[in-house]
Specification:
elongated; disordered C terminus; single chain
């Protein structure tokens, strides 16, 4: 059995009561049913699924900590994030968008929102704004920003801080703005 209280049979994962993690179980399969046994007693029967890499999970098989996550929805998390500022909600949305399934982002999003317990809502919002500027869409990034006090420093516009590169093979804005297509390198002397 896997650590996530599921067993894999023919490419599909079926849940088993979490109390059986690390215990030897037996699987019996037919064309329509997957049966799970522990010490020769049938623990549960699942309807067989042929969806590869899929999961069939029974709520009561989950540990209580995992059951709590099912109470959350993306909308509920976003509504909670809105209380702390526009940057908090924007970061939460970006984190959810970055995952294949929004549920995979719940832990990170809830962690970010709960940072308001340790820091102020204002600081949290500013830290999320900085994380968005850096495109650092993670709980760890927000924690680092807050711990280092970067949220208290003025934001620098990333686009304005780009260094200009000078090289003979790079065309500048002058080249593209000249309607005749002629470009004269400003660094070259014309005789």
């Amino acid at each position: 059995m896997q650590f996530n209280y599921h067993v894999n049979y023919d490419g599909h994962d079926y849940s088993v009561p979490y109390t059986l993690i690390h215990k030897p179980i037996e699987i019996r399969a037919s064309a329509k049913i997957i049966e799970i046994f522990y010490r020769n007693n049938r623990i549960y029967s699942h309807v067989r699924s042929h969806v590869e890499h899929g999961y069939t999970t029974i709520f009561s098989h989950m540990p209580p900590s995992h059951q709590k996550y099912l109470e959350w929805t993306p909308e509920r998390i976003k509504n909670w994030a809105k209380r702390y500022g526009p940057s908090v909600i924007a970061l939460v949305e970006k984190i959810m968008e970055s995952r294949k399934f929004p549920e995979q982002a719940y832990k990170s999003c809830l962690g970010i929102i709960r940072l308001e317990n340790k820091f102020t809502a204002e600081r949290l919002n500013l830290a999320c704004l900085r994380a968005l500027e850096y495109r650092a869409y993670s709980y760890r990034s927000v924690v680092n920003i807050l711990q280092r006090g970067l949220d208290k420093q003025p934001l620098s516009n990333i686009n304005q801080t780009k260094q200009q590169i000078h090289h003979e093979n790079i065309r500048g804005a002058q080249y593209y703005s000249n309607p005749e297509g002629e470009y004269i390198n400003a660094n070259t002397n014309i005789n």
